[in-house]
Each structure stands twice: as C-alpha cells, then as structure tokens.
UniProtKB/TrEMBL annotation:
NCBIfam families: PRK05422.1 (NF003843), smpB (TIGR00086). Required for rescue of stalled ribosomes mediated by trans-translation. Binds to transfer-messenger RNA (tmRNA), required for stable association of tmRNA with ribosomes. tmRNA and SmpB together mimic tRNA shape, replacing the anticodon stem-loop with SmpB. tmRNA is encoded by the ssrA gene; the 2 termini fold to resemble tRNA(Ala) and it encodes a 'tag peptide', a short internal open reading frame. During trans-translation Ala-aminoacylated tmRNA acts like a tRNA, entering the A-site of stalled ribosomes, displacing the stalled mRNA. Its main location: cytoplasm. InterPro entries: SmpB, SsrA-bd_prot, SsrA-bd_prot_CS. GO terms for biological process: trans-translation; trans-translation-dependent protein tagging. Pfam families: SmpB (PF01668). This is SsrA-binding protein. It is found in: Cytoplasm. It comes from Dietzia timorensis.
Length: 170
C-alpha cells in the first residue's frame, strides 16, 4: 500500500498550503521586528471561502491581549461573493489560537508599553489559516532612513559584483 495524497480536481492555486493570502509590507518598514509567532485564526465558513478567493487585507490590522486571550482587530475580510444572509461582518475582531505559555510570553513582552503585536502575513498551512504575528517596536524617522540607506547600499554592491562577473565596466 502506498500513502499518496491526491489532489482535488478543479482546485485553484489560491487557498493551497503555503499560499500567502495577505501580507503587511509596511509593517517591516514602520517597525523593528523583535520576535515572531505563528497563530491560528478562529474564522467562520464564509470568511474561509472569501480568503480562498484571495481576498483579505492586513493594512490596519493589529493584535491585542484582552482577558488572557489574543484578538486580531482591523483585519478586513470582505463578504463572500456567493454568500447569503449568513455572511460575516468584514471587520470583526477575530480570536487568535495560541498556547497559554505563548500568550503569557506575548503579554510579558508587550506589558511595558514599548512593544506592540503586529500581523505580518496571513496564509494557509495544512488547510488552516495562520497569521504570522510579530512583537515589534516602532522605528524613529532616522531609523527608517538608515534602513533604506543600508538596503540601497547592499543592492548596489550586488549589482557591482554582477557587473564584474560579467565583465561589464561600471
């Protein structure tokens, strides 16, 4: 007997394992990432269907810890296009699923007030929706400029090495 997984017919690439539904690119520019966690998201049926269509936005999303539970707020999942009166509210608070020790660790690191919980990406993993949650500290303007300057210098160094390998005068 062989153990092989069969693919469903007609399944699109959206909603497959490892596919990113939404990412928060601005978060890495605005914050210094201190630590990351993977958390499950408690969703209803029409939210999953809408996410399988590739519709979600993490632009204004953030996480809070209330009464020992972690909540994701500001995540926008539009209503499912084929839904009926059972559709969900697009911007409701969604519970994040973490182990107790992870919640305690998050609470301890954010208690001081100088760190915040920022979602970095929303993706499918083994058929379940996961969010990459980061403990982050806000950057100052000069830190953002320094990051951009460093990134530009690294990019130019890589280009120069490529030119030398190809024998193109720079």
């Amino acid at each position: 007997m062989s153990k092989t997984k069969s693919k469903k017919k007609g399944a699109s690439s959206l909603g497959r394992d490892g596919s990113i539904v939404a990412s928060n690119k601005k978060a890495r520019h605005e914050y210094t990432i201190l630590d990351t966690f993977e958390a499950g998201v408690a969703l209803v049926g029409t939210e999953i269907k809408s996410m399988r269509e590739g519709k979600a936005s993490l632009v204004d999303a953030y996480a809070t810890i209330d009464a020992g539970e972690v909540w994701l707020r500001g995540l926008h999942i539009p209503e499912y296009s084929h839904g009926s009166w059972t559709n969900h509210a697009p911007k409701r608070a969604r519970k994040l699923l973490l182990h107790r020790r992870e919640i305690d660790q998050l609470f301890g690191k954010t208690r001081d007030g100088n760190a915040t919980l920022v979602p970095l990406s929303l993706y499918f993993s083994q058929g379940r929706v996961k969010v990459e949650l980061a403990i982050a500290r806000g950057k100052q303007i000069h830190d953002k400029r320094e990051t951009l300057r460093r990134r530009t210098m690294e990019r130019e160094a890589v280009r120069e090495v490529g030119r030398r390998i190809k024998g193109i005068p720079g």
